[in-house]
Amino acid sequence: MKALAKRAFKRSEKQPQRPENILAKPKIIPRDKHPISRKDISEHALKVLYRLHNSGYQAFLVGGCVRDLILGLHPKDFDIATNATPEEVRKLFRNCRLVGRRFRLAHVVFGKEIIEVATFRGHHSQVDDDDTNALAVQSDKGMLLRDNVYGTLEEDAQRRDFTINALYYNIADFSIIDFADGMRDIEAGIIRMIGDSITRYREDPVRMLRAVRFATKLNMRLDDSVAEPIRELAPLLQNIPPPRLFDEFLKLFCAGKGQANFDMLMDYHLFQQLFPMLKSFLKTPDDTPYRMLREAFGDTDERLRNQLYITPAYLFAVVLWWPFQARFEQIMLEGGLPPSDALNVAAADVIERQLQTVAIPRRFGVVVREIWQLQHRLEHAKGKRVQSVLAHPRFRAAYDFLLLRALTAHPSEQRELERRAHFWTQLQEEPKPGNILPATTNSAKKRGRRGGRRRRVKKLSQE
Prior knowledge:
Radius of gyration: 27 Å
Mean pLDDT: 87
Number of helices: 22
Helix content: 40-55%
Largest sheet: 8 strands, mixed
CATH topology of the largest domain: Beta Polymerase, domain 2
Number of domains: 2
Number of strands: 12
Distance between the termini: 60 Å
Structural class: alpha+beta
Strand order of the largest sheet: 1-10-9-2-3-6-5-4
CATH architecture of the largest domain: 2-Layer Sandwich
Strand content: 5-15%
Shape: elongated
């Protein structure tokens, strides 16, 4: 009891100043004054909201889903904020699991849909050293390493990053609580930070990537106070764990706004932090690597608009192609290895270096290597080897990459690449008997190794 009273006294004694852009009194927007309808909210999110509310807890839809519903967009996921602790949420839902070290979260799982439930966050500066359940840890650069500090609804709003994300949909009366004039900024098409931008970027450098992503996704502009510090603070991304930056890579380049994000990331010197090996290759927009990357992201956006399959492996193969080529040529100059071995060593070296910045899951790394290996075969395959290339499960992705190389190549290489691309295009449209093996040959009748089985060949696109 004494410890509890001590913490309460310390909290009242050390109340932090209200951050910039937080209103002294939040605006309550009643149901008839905003466009959000329950029919547009996931039934599973509604189930979680109602169960929390009926159990005596506060429950709100929060952040991007509220923002997107206001803009008439369909949210990809629905996040909930509550005053229930993660352990209390787990007691209410048998299909709940607790995740996260930096900030403890509850995931309520409904098949493929996951509803993320977060306890209101408090101010980490208010934590009592003796309170092991409310632990916040910062690095010497100001980055939050652990932030399990629980607070009130008002404190949670102050801890949000941008004003357009500090909007709360209240399931109790269907109103929206606006703590930072987020509705005004949505209408004005501007992205503002809650609090000092430099401090917030230092707490979590990924906010710089989020600022870019929101600007392109929502067709908004960055407020000067949000944009100006980014170039100077961009190197802070080097302190972010690679798996987290892989997640950001997917959001930036596999969601339909890849080309716009690439342009903006380059402008703010952020892309170079994600892929440091590319710094010497992306000096001007006229450089061949620059044009290749921009074209690849644009092609991926087009495929997504047409609801076609894409894979991050293809984009990683494109992005890292030039460092891979440079390393391959270096190994060949050193001598001692045949081209196939030099290719494998170069691929392993480049991917290993990239893993230090942006994680590449093994399932994608394998595909990246296969796409690179097939470039050599696409350029040199003749006679009977043509059929084996066509039958390769990564042929289509490698073929698309060859077309991309031919389109964006330097004039000294373009003619030959266009010739090879035309050969493979014609071969698929009008197969020539001289280039394709007969359906049945003596070699095909030979018995394979004991216990082996024939590999099924699938026609894949960018896989």
